[in-house]
Amino acid sequence: MTVEEIIKEYLTTNGYDGLCCEDCGCGIDDLAPCGDMRLDCVPAYKDNSCPDKAICEYAREDCCCYRAEKG
Predict the structure, then answer these.
(1) Is residue 12 very low, low, confident or very high in pLDDT (cuts 50, 70, 90)?
(2) Which residues lie below 8 Å from residue 52, measured CB to CB, with a gap of 6+?
(3) 40 Cβ partners below 8 Å, 6+ apart?
(4) How far apart are CA 22 and CA 4, in angstroms?
(5) Residue 70 pLDDT > 80, yes or no?
(6) CA distance readout (Å), 46 to 1, 21, 32, 71
(7) Is the N or C terminus of the chain more exposed, i.e. has fewer CB atoms within 10 Å?
(8) What is the mean pLDDT of the chain?
(9) H or E stretch including 66?
(10) Taking 70 as the threshold, does the pLDDT of residue 19 lie above it?
(11) How far from 7 is each of 10, 21, 37, 46, 52, CA to CA, in Å?
């Protein structure tokens, strides 16, 4: 089992939608879209209240729409 598989299993088992850190977020289906997973990422929920065109520092649509708390 790879580290990515372990993380995906944990997130899925515990009801999370992805990961987030201060300026970025990603969904379970596209972990570390920037190429590297930051070590400060925490389990996150998809935030459906964010603007449709929220862009993170890596210019990926809706990647900042993940929050550590449900909202």
Answers:
(1) very high
(2) 62
(3) 21, 22
(4) 20
(5) no
(6) 26, 13, 15, 8
(7) N
(8) 79
(9) strand 66-67
(10) yes
(11) 5, 15, 11, 16, 27
